Amino acid sequence: MTIFTIDSENNIAAHGAQSEITDKDAAQFISQKELGQLAGDWPGTRLVEIWNRIPGVVPVKRFTNRAVAIVRIWKAVQALVPAEDGGVALAGRRAARKPTRTQHAHTGRTPSKPRLSPS
Fold first, then answer.
1. Would residue 60 count as lying in a domain?
2. Is there a domain that residue 71 lies in?
3. What is the pTM of this model?
4. Rounded to an integer, what distance in angstroms lies between the CA atom of residue 104 and that of residue 46?
5. Fewest C-beta atoms under 10 Å: which of 15, 18, 62, 109?
6. What phi and psi values does residue 91 have, to the nearest 5 degrees?
7. Which residues pair with 90 in a beta bridge?
8. How far apart are CA 40 and CA 30, in angstroms?
9. Is residue 13 in a domain?
């Protein structure tokens, strides 16, 4: 079971066991429900900062609401695994990319009235 911690600087870490946790003041959680309970009193800006520090995610400026933030953060941290050096690493997941926008050829304007041919 992976234990996740968030320190006072909003850095998130994944740990394989309780004995690996060096910062005893860091908030700890093992489930989405526990994360929601921890984040209940946090300002929205802290949730945004936590999200933006997770490796491989597309940074955001704000969340729609607290529930959306909790779900997205929980899903993102599930891809983190404890690293050898005490940090975190991505587990078999490619970094998220910003979707590209395709440009469609401009074909001009279609006439709104039919043309009358001279008779």
1. yes
2. yes
3. 0.65
4. 39
5. 109
6. -100, 95
7. 80
8. 16
9. yes
Q: Which domain holds residue 60?
A: 3-18+25-88
Residue identified by tokens 């039919």 is: 114
- The dihedrals phi and psi of 4, each to the nearest 5 degrees, come to -105, 145
Token duo for residue 44: 């929205």
What token pair was written down for 100? Answer: 């590209």
Rounded to whole angstroms, the Cα distance separating 94 from 6 reads 23
Q: In tens digits, what is the pLDDT along the chain, a chain of 119 residues?
A: 788 888 888 888 888 888 888 888 888 899 999 999 998 888 999 999 999 988 888 999 999 999 999 999 999 988 877 655 455 544 444 445 555 666 666 667 776 777 777 76
DSSP string, the chain: --EEEE-TT--EEEESSGGG---TTSEEESSHHHHHHHGGGS-HHHHHHHHHHSTTPPP-S--S-HHHHHHHHHHHHTTEEE-TTSSEEE-S-PPP-PPPPPPPPP--PPPSSPPPPP-
- Asked if residue 112 is part of any domain, the answer here is no
| Spatial separation of the C-alpha atoms in residues 6 and 65, rounded to whole Å | 20
Number of folded domains that form the chain? 1
